[in-house]
Amino acid sequence: MSGTLASMIDGLLVGSVYGLAAMGLSLIWGVMDVINLTHGSTIALGMFAMYLLCSAIAVNAYVLLAPIVAMGLVFGFIVYWLAVHWVVGRSILMSLLATFAVNMMVVGIGTAVWSTSPYNVNFSLPGITIGAYTFTGNHLAAAIAAVVIALALQLFLHRTRFGKAIRAVADNREAAELMGISSAAVLAVAFGIGMALAAGAGALVATLFPFTILSGAVYQLKSFVVTILAGLGKPFGALFAGVLLGLLEGALTPFLAVSWIPVIEFALFVVMLIAFPRGIFGRARA
User: Fold this and answer.
1) What is the model's pTM?
2) Whole-angstrom Cα distance, residue 267 to residue 265?
3) Which of 24, 27, 83, 138 is the most buried (most CB within 10 A)?
4) Cα(28)–Cα(98) distance, rounded to whole angstroms?
5) CA 202 → CA 3, 65, 73, 111, 168, distances in Å?
6) Is 25 left (phi over 0), alpha (psi -120 to 50) or beta?
7) Cβ-contact 6, 247 below 8 angstroms
8) Do the beta carbons of residue 209 and residue 18 sit within 8 Å?
């Protein structure tokens, strides 16, 4: 197996985690028309939640995903009712300012508590060796976990009563309210789920790479790139777009310094906005 192919496979595994992170951003946009700038700091909180729980409880790190996702859901509810609820239906600028303010508060408090020193989750799973290359167990487990969570979200949105209510509110909020659906409750749950996905993605990233409280900004950029690639309001499409971004990173890594990767991703973000504003799957609701 060539080094480039091995790097692309590794990128594919990591890309599934990017896709999971972007699903939360895409879901919130598709349901609420809100661009959530708290996304990056929530990813960072998911990283530190994994670190703290792994340090306190001697269990498989991926078992801890469930409580971290649940904590992300609760955090999402809190942020929604304190900051986002008041700006739903208003201009995009209002939601940007509201969520950016929360983001800065989280980063500020996190910096005071944990500083900006790098942390690392001390957990590893046995990998798989193919030829001269070994794919770490953590990368494989993180990719599987991301796909399982993504499939669970898809089933929730299309097979449960509340999931269908979320899609109804996304399609036509006024008509949904006439049918007896509480849009306030639906929007709160949708925002909470989006934040839970971000926290879960952060927890998975923490098992793969070192991180700081500022690391969320990097993955927020990747989430925006993936969301634009997939098309705004396409949460499940974001998973596939995340895999594509991971493949691109894997293809470029053997030939470019790692510091150039964010530059190329941002350039891709701008190109997609200009040339393909509807994304790969087209702009649509959840």
Assistant:
1) 0.90
2) 5
3) 24
4) 14
5) 27, 10, 13, 17, 29
6) alpha
7) no
8) no
CA dihedral 94, 99, 100, 106 (to 10 degrees): 160
What's the CA gap between 181 and 165, in Å, rounded? 7
Domains assigned to the chain:
3-114+122-275 (1.10.3470)
Q: How many residues does the chain have?
A: 286
Cα dist from 90 to 33, 35, 86, 96, 165, whole Å: 9, 12, 9, 11, 22
Task: Supply 145's token pair.
Answer: 């976990």
d(CA 227, CA 219): 12
